[in-house]
Amino acid sequence: LLPVADSMQMALANLKDSDPEILKGIELVSNQLNKSFEKLKVEGYGEIGDSFDPNLHNAISKVESEELGENQLAQIFQRGYKIGDKIIRHAMVQVANCD
């Protein structure tokens, strides 16, 4: 189901200016998927500005940024997911100001 969640997030991000009825349908399906994740105790993580944690994140690139601090997430390419403390997929991220 994680690839479906990724597709829903991409669709919502890219269809903001499209037909409101299409957007509403995608939002309904996305909400239903999120409720299913809640029931299964699956939590998504990885937000811009979070601190990089190699136990949670897979850094695939780095960038210099005046807006972000050292080792903060600059971009999320793919959200991570966990159940409790068990990682089921690491977040794929870009890290700011790291060496």
In a few lines, what is going on in this structure?
33% of the residues lie in helices and 32% in strands. It contains 2 helices and 6 strands. The longest helix is centred in the first third of the chain and has 20 residues, at 20-39.
SSE layout and pairings?
Elements: H1 2-14, H2 20-39, E1 42-45, E2 57-63, E3 72-78, E4 80-83, E5 86-89, E6 91-96
Helix pairs in contact: 1-2
- Give the ordered list of helices and strands: HHEEEEEE
CATH class of the largest domain: Mainly Beta
Biggest sheet, open or closed, and with what strands and sense?
3 strands, antiparallel
The CATH topology of the largest domain turns out to be Nucleotide Exchange Factor Grpe, Chain A, domain 2
Overall mean pLDDT stands at 94
How far apart, in Å, are the first and last alpha carbons? 35 Å
CATH architectural arrangement of the largest domain: Roll
User: How are the strands ordered across the major sheet?
Assistant: 1-4-5
Q: Going by CATH, what is the homologous superfamily of the largest domain? A: Head domain of nucleotide exchange factor GrpE
How many DSSP helices? 2
- Strands, count: 6
Task: Please give the share of residues in helix.
Answer: 25-40%
Note the overall shape. flat
SSE class: alpha+beta
